[in-house]
Amino acid sequence: MSSEPTSDLASYPSPNLAVDLVLITICDGALRVLMMERQEEPFAGRWVLPGGFVHPREMLDDTARRVLGAKTGLADLPVEQLYSFSSPERDPRGWVVSVAYLALVPSDRLLAAIGEGRGLRLVEIAVGSGSAGRVAPLGITADGEPVEPGFDHREIVTVAVERLQGKLDWSMVAFGFLPEEFTLFELQRVHELILGRGVNKPHFRKKMLDRTFPDGRGLGPTGRFSRGGRHRPAELYRLEAAVS
Amino acid sequence: MSSEPTSDLASYPSPNLAVDLVLITICDGALRVLMMERQEEPFAGRWVLPGGFVHPREMLDDTARRVLGAKTGLADLPVEQLYSFSSPERDPRGWVVSVAYLALVPSDRLLAAIGEGRGLRLVEIAVGSGSAGRVAPLGITADGEPVEPGFDHREIVTVAVERLQGKLDWSMVAFGFLPEEFTLFELQRVHELILGRGVNKPHFRKKMLDRTFPDGRGLGPTGRFSRGGRHRPAELYRLEAAVS
DNA sequence: GCAATAGTGTCTTTCAGACACTATATC
DNA sequence: GATATAGTGTCTGAAAGACACTATTGC
User: Fold this and answer.
1) Which of A96, A176, B100, B224 is least surrounded, with the fewest CB atoms within 10 Å of its CB?
2) End-to-end alpha-carbon separation of chain A, Å?
3) pLDDT tens across B132-147, in order?
4) Global pTM exceeds 0.85
């Protein structure tokens, strides 16, 4: 806009505008994304991301939160805009541009929220150990079987994982997957699953414990311990105001 | 899309979809963005980014390239999608969603391309030395006078500079501002202007000369020198296939 | 010679990872 | 005691930056 000498917006053809939601969690030792088995054509029977059309004069962030609430009831989660997809062939029904949004949620909250779910499913994402590059070769599987999502949703999930990888070391995204209290090893597992490779344990622990995160908080011990494994209990940590 | 049980896309209201272009260059020792003085209401007389509406079934990347070619003739530059803006008040004429795109160009090419320009102007962006945070407090000035761009274009330029800062150390964005051959100090100035702070000279030179960039190339000396200053000439470097 | 920028050598601090070790739970 | 994970100490090499120094041009 802003350049063509007209004020008659109605004279310009306009696409349908939708939002697709990449809701990512970690459970059963894997990175997973919420998908649903599509009932209608096109792509009936394929796994697709939850989504919906933008309402008139609705902010895209609000659309994403609305879709999130409608599908999971988790209306309070932060959402982040990822990218806009506009391939003319992406939807056989017509000209549909979709803005993808990313949201993270701890698995316990998500499992409670979707409950029985109406065709909702946490599909596994295997992040390849992409040696040195920044791209993430993804294996998307349900019940161990590779699946090919409908529309351009494989590409959207790939962009989401790349965003997670890029933000992992300077932002607080890892905590989006964890409950209030967690062990340092659980935090390490989050990093390893997102990066698709192992990280150095002593260094990881020192770095995390010394660090002040962007919101000014840091990790602090709770004095409580995670029991239940057949091994020494791990201390639980939480984000708290930095002592400095 | 992809979730509501209908195939009648026409029943959904749809916004006008536009692309706004953030074309950034470095000249006269400052980071600058191409803006134009808007002739029509709304925001007549204010500086705005070049932009245009998306054509039916056109990929957004193609729209960005088309607008770039129409305004500057530089149709071959790479463009990168930045973010989609959807505030309901952003355009008083109606519901217009805009996808912002970023493009970088060496100042010599840009100055030759816009020539006399029809109200085109390279507006200065002063990146504040934002201490530690990731945000960039921007001063946007024309002839040294602060200006307030029309629409939400100040916000769009801010997002563009943040993207540049985030990509600076792992991508090749800095070379987008430079001609084929350049001195290491010119490369350093590009980094300093984008970051809004000085960088360590010996370390910067060593790092750049040792480095292999994402396309596999590295910096190599040309044997030619930049003459003309009242000081020792600086050697010209260029990107070339890495020796390894 | 002087001013100004080009370009380098060295030292210190911090970061990242390898490796090895001790600790403590369940079985 | 066996095993599995929790958690720590130390060493090495790389990365980042501070600082000081030499080099070469125009004037």
Assistant:
1) B224
2) 49
3) 334 455 777 767 778 8
4) yes
